[in-house]
Design brief:
Pfam families: PPR_2. Keywords: Repeat. It comes from Heterosigma akashiwo. The chain is 73% helix and 0% strand. The chain is mainly α and 112 residues long. The protein has six helices and no strands. The model has no long low-confidence stretch (mean pLDDT 91).
């Protein structure tokens, strides 16, 4: 579902998972984020990040990299930098993927 960007189907299965009493983890939430990121839906990515935190699931590098990537793909470098700041504040280490996402986005914006 996430690879195809079928976010409605993803959310349907997430609901079924919750109904079955299965507890979502960081992989679950990162998959939801990835699906919405593929469709460029920043608002839904932020929504699911909020749901993740509210559920007590700790975001990881992949979480923040996905959030930054959706911002990069939509050209919102200010929001991308905000997510980078949140990542640092959460004590999550940036990787080469994180920095490459930022650099590529800034390059695309400057070429523009």
């Amino acid at each position: 579902c996430a690879s195809a960007g079928d976010t409605a189907l993803m959310e349907k299965w997430f609901g079924r998972m919750q109904t079955a009493g299965v507890v979502a983890n960081e992989v679950t939430y990162n998959t939801l984020l990835k699906g919405h990121a593929r469709t460029g839906n920043t608002a839904q990515c932020e929504h699911w990040y909020g749901q993740m935190v509210a559920a007590g699931v700790r975001p990881n590098t992949k979480t923040f990299s996905t959030l930054m990537d959706v911002c990069a793909s939509t050209g919102d470098t200010a929001l991308m930098e905000k997510w980078f700041g949140r990542m640092q504040a959460a004590g999550v280490a940036a990787t080469e993927v994180t920095y490459n996402t930022m650099l590529n986005s800034l390059l695309r914006k400057s070429i523009g």
